[in-house]
Design brief:
This protein is mainly alpha-helical. About 65% of the residues lie in helices and about 5% in strands.
Length: about 425
């Protein structure tokens, strides 16, 4: 009697399959979303640590501190954020729904602390930070995460009533409105725009009537235009509209940061001037380790380095979009869409500002720019999404199969016997 043994399935492909079949099988694997998100997250975090060290060392020395000051601070936040990501990965969906309201209320309290004298900290016209135990935290980053979890929780329960505009708007819009008012109280227009985008995205994925967006877009546009008149925003927008260049009349004013950022990208060429060899970071480019770290990547690593960062961000977004499209759980779909919008808006605003396609609003590059609160909350949010990916249909079985395959492979390795080769 002849027994036929099928080759083991690994990532959706069999041992005898062609290369194209193997690639298709791996792309169709239930673990593909997990590996895309996890791999891109780890790679961007590591690149961010290296570039924070390179871009901040000169300024740290000029301030009389160690060249590793910003790096160790960012590494410490990464050391907090990675375990937070691993913990969030193991939290069940039901628990996230329970945490929705407490997270939102916590974000309100933290944001209100920015107005408390002695705790709230301001910088460059914005007043959106708090100082606790010697560390500066940005509560708005917590607010974005809280809005996603809370909004998804509320909208899942509202799903049968989403065809009614009043039920679609309440309580999501009032809740997000409170957070917006607190953020705008600190004059942080960029973060407020991201919160608006997240709120709109949550409502859209939940199935809110399209006429709501038509009415709300006009109101929000007027609000953004009114807020743009405050502080130095009007000067920056005007300079951007007139075109920032080395020969522009405002090259030493509102265009200064934009011009030097574009010089950094231009001087990098194809392969860059070399890691650590940036010239713009020597006090010429403000916020080189934060809002304009992408310019330092372009200068030191060249076009290849910038395309690598953009490619990893696209990979991260692809993994998030894949989870949204493959899940049947409405909470998972809405929450993952919120995280996707969070990543996309930050990336587009940051890179667009650096290359001159958008006005500069002071937005960090996800997982790459220096910033402890932004890094920890983003890693926590991605950990939540990774947990969703691990619970995708067939993912648990695929993980168990891979562990079993490794154990079987180790079991057949030759064992050196005592006394052999004497």
């Amino acid at each position: 009697m002849t027994v036929t043994v099928e080759p083991p399935l690994v990532g959706g492909a069999r041992d005898g399959d062609s290369l194209s079949q193997r690639v298709a099988g791996r792309l169709n694997s239930p673990l593909t979303s997990y590996y895309l998100v996890f791999g891109a997250t780890v790679a961007l975090t590591c690149i961010g640590l290296v570039m924070v060290l390179s871009s901040s060392s000169v300024e740290s020395i000029a301030d009389g501190a160690s060249p590793f000051t910003e790096f160790w601070r960012q590494a410490m936040f990464a050391a907090i954020g990675v375990p937070a990501m691993l913990v969030a990965m193991r939290i069940p969906v039901r628990t996230w729904q329970v945490l929705g309201w407490p997270l939102l209320l916590l974000s309100f309290v933290l944001q209100m602390l920015t107005f408390v004298p002695g705790i709230g900290v301001g910088a460059k016209g914005n007043h959106g930070w708090i100082l606790i135990a010697g560390f500066t935290l940005q509560p708005a980053e917590v607010g974005k995460f809280a809005l996603i979890v809370w909004g998804a929780t509320v909208l899942v329960r509202k799903r049968p009533l989403m065809d009614q505009p009043l039920h679609a708007l309440i309580p999501v819009v009032p809740g997000a409105g409170v957070l917006l008012l607190l953020i705008l109280g600190g004059k942080d227009l960029g973060t407020a725009m991201v919160v608006m985008a997240i709120m709109a995205g949550l409502l859209f994925v939940a199935g809110a009537p399209l006429r709501i967006f038509a009415a709300a877009s006009g109101v929000l546009l007027l609000a953004v235009l009114a807020l743009a008149q405050t502080g130095n925003r009007l000067d920056r927008i005007g300079s951007w509209l007139n075109g920032c260049s080395a020969t522009s009349a405002d090259a030493m004013g509102a265009c200064f940061q934009s011009v030097h950022g574009q010089w950094a990208l231009a001087s990098g060429g194809w392969w860059g001037v070399g890691l650590g060899a940036s010239r713009e970071k020597w006090g010429l480019l403000p916020e080189a380790h934060n809002d304009f770290i992408f310019a330092i990547v372009g200068e030191e690593l060249g076009l290849v380095g910038t395309l690598l960062v953009i490619g990893l961000l696209l990979t991260l977004c692809l993994g998030l979009a894949r989870i949204v499209l493959r899940t049947d759980d409405l909470f998972v779909k809405i929450a993952t869409s919120g995280v996707l919008i969070w990543v996309v808006t930050h990336s587009v605003i940051n890179i667009g500002g650096v290359i001159g396609l958008l006005p500069i609003v002071g937005m960090p590059l996800p997982l790459v720019s220096s910033g402890g609160t932004a890094l920890i909350t983003m890693l926590g949010a991605l950990g939540m999404v990774l947990g969703f990916a691990r619970r995708e249909t067939g993912a648990a079985q695929a993980l168990a199969a891979r562990v079993g395959l490794v154990q079987r492979s180790l079991a057949v390795l030759p064992v050196r016997r005592e006394g052999r080769n004497r």
